[in-house]
Amino acid sequence: MGDKGVQVGPEPLTFDQVVAVAREDAPVTLTERALERIAAARAHVEELSARPTPVYGVSTGFGALATRHIPPELRRQLQLNIVRSHAAGSGPEVEREVVRAMMLLRLRTLASGHSGVQPVTAQTLAALLNAGITPIVHEYGSLGCSGDLAPLSHVALALIGEGEVRDAAGRRKPAAQALAEADIPPVTLGAKEGLALINGTDGMLGMLVLAACDLRRLLVCADIAAAMSVEALLGTDRVFAAELQQLRPHPGQAASAANLRALLAGSAIMESHRGPDCTRVQDAYSLRCSPQVNGAARDTLAHAEQVASRELASAIDNPVVLPDGRVESNGNFHGAPLAYVLDFLAIPVADVASMSERRTDRMLDRARSHGLPAFLADDPGVDSGHMIAQYTQAAIVSELKRLAVPASVDSLPSSAMQEDHVSMGWSAARKLRRALDGLTRVLAIEILTAARALDLRAPLRPAPATAAVVAALREHVGPPGPDRHLAPEIDHAVRLVRDGTLRAAAERVTGPLA
C-alpha cells in the first residue's frame, strides 16, 4: 500500500486493500479522478432535483412508498428520515473489521461517480475511517436485498452525527462527541444522499473478502494437519505423487498434493515402513483423499474469489447516475451473487473440518493407530489423553454441518410486497464467519494431537517440515505426559493456527506453500 495507504477511486479495490483498511487501519485517500466523478454526478442530481418530474430516490418515497412525490421543501427531511428509520438493527455488535470493510466498500461505490452524493459526503466517510471511528452496527437487520440497508444506515447515521460509535481506542460514545473530538463536521444530507449511503452489498462483500483471505490461509493449515496425521499414523505418501494427481487435473488438488509432498519430504517415520514387510496396501480415505477434499475446497474458494472480484469492480446503488445524466432504477443491489458463494463456501469448510476430525479420531483409537497408546494417554485408564479434545472437535463439526445449510434459499418478502424476493446474503456471511472460527479450532486440535503422536513415535524422527511445526507448538505447549488442563493448550494451538505461526514454521523448511 505504501506511504499513501489505499487510494480510493472508480477503479476496483483489491482483496489486500480491503484487508489493510479493515484489519490494519491503513489510511484511505480519495483520488482526484474520484472527486471529479463525484462532483459531475452530483451536478446531475441537483439538476434533476429541480425538475417537477418525479425521480426515484431524489423526489419520491422509498420502497412501497415510491409512488409519493415529495415536494422540494421536504426532500432534505426525506433523506434524513430514511437514515434514521432504516437504522433499525438489533442484536450484538458486528465486528470492527467488518464495519470498516463495509465503510470502505461503500466509499468505493461513491467514488465511482454513480451515486450522486456531494463530494464532502464521501470525504467525511473517508475521514471517519482515518480517525478510527467505527459506527455501532448490529447483527440483525439486513435481508441482503436493497443492499445491507440496516447495517449501512447505522454507518450513515454516524456521518450525520447521530447514533453511537466506537472511537479509535474502542470506547463507545455518541457519534456527535466522537466527530467533534476528531474535528470532523457532520454531513448535511442533500437530495438522494441518504439512499446512496445505504443501498449497497458492502457488508456481504466485505465479509466475503475477509472470509476468502482467512480460508485460503486455513487450507494450507489443513494440509499441514493432514501431513502430520499421515505421518503419525504410518500412512503412505505415495498416493500424493504428482503423476497420480495429474490423472485428475483439478488445480486445487494438485496444489494440496504438492504441499503434502513438501511437508513429508525427508521423514524418517515414513521411511521406516516403506520396505517389503509393510502389509498395508491402502490408507483410510481421511488420509489418502486429503488432496481431493482440501483441493476441492480451494477450487470452490477460487470461484468465490472470482465473484468477489467482480463485485469489487461494481457500483452498487439504486437508482444510479449514468454518465449522460440519467438517473435510472435497477436491481443491482440484489445480493444473490454474493449470497450463493457465501453459502457455497460453508460446505467445504464443514467437509474439511469433518475429514480433520476423522483423522484425529483415528490417532486416538488403539485399534487403528498402528502402535500408539489409547487416546495418546500417558497411562491409559489413569489418564484420558486427548479423548475429550476429539469430543470438542466432534461438537464443532456437528455445528459446522448445520451452518452449511444455505441461507440464500430462503426469502421473506418485505416493504408491503414491493421487495418480494430477498437474498439473505448477510445471514450467509454471518454464519460463514462462525464456520471459519470452527474450522480453525478443529484444525488446531488435529495439529495438537498429531504433534503428540509424532513425539510418541520417537526415536523415529518426523520430516523436517512437520518437526518444525511440532517445535513451534512446543514453545507454548508441553510434550506428552500425564493428564493436564487441556483447554489452554487447545487455545494456544488455535492462536498459532490463526496468526500463521505454525504455517510459517513449516514454510521455513518447505518454502511457500500454496
UniProtKB/TrEMBL annotation:
Keywords: Cytoplasm, Histidine metabolism, Lyase. It catalyses: L-histidine = trans-urocanate + NH4(+). GO terms for cellular component: cytoplasm. One of its GO terms (biological process) is L-histidine catabolic process to glutamate and formate. Its EC number is 4.3.1.3. Belongs to the PAL/histidase family. Contains an active site 4-methylidene-imidazol-5-one (MIO), which is formed autocatalytically by cyclization and dehydration of residues Cys-Ser-Gly. The gene is hutH. This is Histidine ammonia-lyase. Its main location: cytoplasm. It is found in: Cytoplasm. CDD domains: PAL-HAL. Transmembrane segments: none annotated. InterPro entries: Aromatic_Lyase, Fumarase/histidase_N, HutH, L-Aspartase-like, Phe/His_NH3-lyase_AS. GO terms for molecular function: histidine ammonia-lyase activity. It comes from the Bacteria. Pathway: Amino-acid degradation; L-histidine degradation into L-glutamate; N-formimidoyl-L-glutamate from L-histidine: step 1/3. It holds the Pfam family Lyase_aromatic. There is a cross-link at C145-G147 (5-imidazolinone (Ala-Gly)).
